[in-house]
């Protein structure tokens, strides 16, 4: 199997991830629910993961790192905390449904900063034109469909200059780009644990500048007499039993990322992307969505003229090549790139892939293209 | 003598314990006795020696978030005073 769906979830993980998860399942109880050794061991592990995340993403206090089920859960907490019905919220033209649907549910009036693909200046200009009408900005760091790296630091600066709160979706950035929470000055920043951080599914992080409003309520193991959720982080957003095995895996995954460094992982993924783009560039009927290197992460979308993208992905799947096709839960991004009618086929890379695998993938696409004629 | 430093949250307790451990103190995170918690369950740091130094270290790092108690021989707790902190 050649796994090229890492933007959905990374399937191949460092070996330590599974090992640490198993260890946690066998030795850790529920953190904050007792004083016995197994509970305290779990508490310590959860804290180490929180501390690791704080260091990796420049969060001043580990308390401000909240564990969630995934990035969508984290984004829902952020939106629920800041959006009131009728509020004008400015978003980029590359947002995922994990952003747009919670905003719609909260009754926000959504303003979209539309801009062409891989054009940083146009993106910034689009934000600049509308930001003064907005009470909140929500922006992804990287498009999950095209790998377009948005100029988040400059967008954050626009927000800071105007004292407009910012929610950042780092779903496709965590693990490959420098996610500097303190530097951005965001109110909240959400990310999954199971993509570029190589943790297991069911893990995510919300970095919080403020305490926010809990999305769910329940036992936190703290201040149990009170019938409101605690007013302090992280307990305020962590009702119910933690996913301790997941957190153990996430800690192992983040340790791997820290040791390899996000910059080195990005470079490796970009090299694989270039290899794929070169291998597909002369395949008849293939349309690639590539930008200047500095504007694209390890995600490559393409279409094949005369073939439905889902059908193409299905045929490649029969050869053991795992790609994602369709709209990728991001119709807005497809509208911005003018691919809404067809969707695209997405190949997303990981440092666990080899150049040989990429060449085999290119050969399979080429062969399929020949069969179409 | 056993001392308990009450903590605002479990994360606060873990953070404080780690700081003390890194500076050579022997402190552990324990579940705080219900009688010492106004709002129910919570956690504390347990420490046997060098209380004054530990408290100053926690204060300097903005990690002292609760009251400090001394455990008597009969198992009861009293709030620590200046003598304990000296």
Gap between N and C termini of chain A, in Å?
Answer: 27 Å
Task: Tell me the radius of gyration of chain B.
Answer: 12 Å
CATH topology of chain B: Alpha-Beta Plaits
| CATH level-two architecture of the largest domain in chain A | 3-Layer(aba) Sandwich
State the helical fraction of chain A: 40-55%
Tell me what the structure shows:
- The complex is a heterodimer of chains A (373) and B (86).
- With 373 residues, chain A is α/β, with parallel strands linked by helices.
- Chain A has two domains: 2-10 and 261-372, Aspartate Aminotransferase, domain 1 (Alpha-Beta Complex); 15-260, Aspartate Aminotransferase, domain 2.
- Helix content of chain A is 40%, strand content 15%.
- Chain A is built from twelve helices and 13 strands.
- Chain A has helices spanning 15-27, 37-56, 71-82, 97-105, 120-130, 152-162, 181-184, 244-260, 262-280, 309-318, 331-337, 355-372, and strands spanning 2-3, 65-68, 88-92, 109-113, 136-140, 166-169, 188-192, 204-208, 286-289, 299-304, 321-322, 324-326, 344-348.
- In chain A, strand 5 (136-140), helix 6 (152-162) and strand 6 (166-169) form a beta-alpha-beta unit.
- The longest helix of chain A is centred in the N-terminal third of the chain and has 20 residues, at 37-56.
- Chain A is globular.
- The model of chain A has no long low-confidence stretch (mean pLDDT 97).
- Chain B has a five-stranded antiparallel sheet.
- The relative contact order of chain B is 0.27.
- Chain B is an alpha+beta fold and 86 residues long.
- Chain B has helices at 10-22, 51-60, 82-85; strands at residues 3-6, 27-31, 43-47, 68-71, 77-79.
């Amino acid at each position: 199997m050649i796994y090229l769906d890492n933007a959905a979830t990374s399937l191949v993980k460092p070996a330590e991830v599974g090992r640490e998860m198993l260890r946690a399942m066998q030795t850790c109880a529920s953190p904050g629910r007792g004083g016995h050794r197994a509970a305290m061991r779990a508490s310590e592990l959860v804290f180490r993961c929180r501390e690791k995340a704080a260091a990796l993403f420049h969060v001043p206090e580990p308390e401000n790192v909240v564990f969630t089920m995934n990035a969508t859960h984290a984004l829902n907490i952020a939106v629920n905390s800041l959006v009131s019905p009728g509020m004008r919220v400015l978003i980029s033209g590359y947002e995922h449904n994990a952003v747009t649907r919670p905003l719609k549910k909260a009754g926000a009036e959504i303003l979209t900063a539309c801009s062409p693909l891989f054009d940083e200046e146009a993106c910034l200009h689009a934000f600049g034109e509308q930001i003064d009408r907005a009470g909140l900005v929500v922006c992804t760091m990287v498009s999950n469909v095209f790998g377009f790296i948005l100029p988040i630091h400059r967008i954050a600066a626009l927000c800071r200059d105007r004292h407009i709160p910012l929610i950042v979706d780092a779903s496709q950035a965590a693990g490959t780009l420098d996610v500097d929470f303190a530097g951005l000055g965001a109110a909240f920043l959400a990310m999954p644990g199971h993509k570029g951080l190589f943790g297991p599914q069911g893990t995510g992080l919300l970095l919080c500048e403020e305490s926010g409003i809990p999305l769910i309520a329940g036992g936190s193991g703290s201040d149990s007499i009170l019938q409101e959720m605690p007013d302090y982080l992280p307990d305020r957003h962590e009702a119910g039993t933690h996913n301790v095995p997941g957190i153990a895996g996430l800690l192992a995954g983040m340790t791997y990322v820290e040791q390899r460094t996000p910059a080195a992982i990005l470079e490796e993924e970009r090299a694989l992307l270039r290899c794929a783009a070169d291998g597909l560039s002369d395949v008849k009927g293939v349309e690639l969505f590539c930008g200047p290197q500095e504007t694209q992460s390890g995600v490559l979308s393409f279409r094949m003229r005369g073939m439905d993208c889902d059908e193409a992905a299905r045929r490649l799947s029969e050869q053991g090549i795992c790609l994602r096709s369709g709209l990728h839960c991001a119709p807005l991004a497809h509208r911005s790139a003018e691919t809404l009618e067809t969707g695209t086929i997405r190949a997303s890379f990981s440092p666990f892939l080899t150049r040989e695998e990429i060449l085999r993938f290119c050969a399979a696409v080429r062969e399929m293209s020949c069969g179409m004629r | 003598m056993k001392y308990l430093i009450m903590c605002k949250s479990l994360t606060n307790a873990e953070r404080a314990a780690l700081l003390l451990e890194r500076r050579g103190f022997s402190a552990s995170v324990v579940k705080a006795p219900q009688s010492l918690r106004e709002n129910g369950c919570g956690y504390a740091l347990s420490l046997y020696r060098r209380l004054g130094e530990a408290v100053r270290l926690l204060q300097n790092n903005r990690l002292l978030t609760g009251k400090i108690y001394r455990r008597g021989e009969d198992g009861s707790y009293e709030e620590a005073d200046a003598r304990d902190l000296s």
